Amino acid sequence: xxxxxxxxxxxxxxxxxxxxxxxxxxxxxxxxxxxxxxxxxxxxxxxxxxxxxxxxxxxxxxxxxxxxxxxxxxxxxxxxxxxxxxxxxxxxxxxxxxxxxxxxxxxxxxxxxxxxxxxxxxxxxxxxxxxxxxxxx
Length: 137
Known about the structure:
Helices cover 24% and strands 27% of the residues.
């Protein structure tokens, strides 16, 4: 059983699983070009394009795209004079909320935010916090 040649053009530009006649495992990749004469197929992880003819293709099915995982970005510590802008742009506070805060309250609010599961994390402690931590020990 092979695929209908006229249906190959429907797969151009799509990620597919390509099962060849006589093969147990499907090939995962992208159909770069297609016509009733065959397809130009690029396997996942390879750079070369391979031709396959309709009589050698048992089945072809579109693969759903996997959702990409977002990783946490590392940012330098926020300087005290920039903390209000950072709260508005990175933490979702409104301008009204940010402008109502004093500078000290804004710094305290930001330092109280748990960054472990946010889109960013400040990978270094600000110098002022380091010296305060050393003095308190």
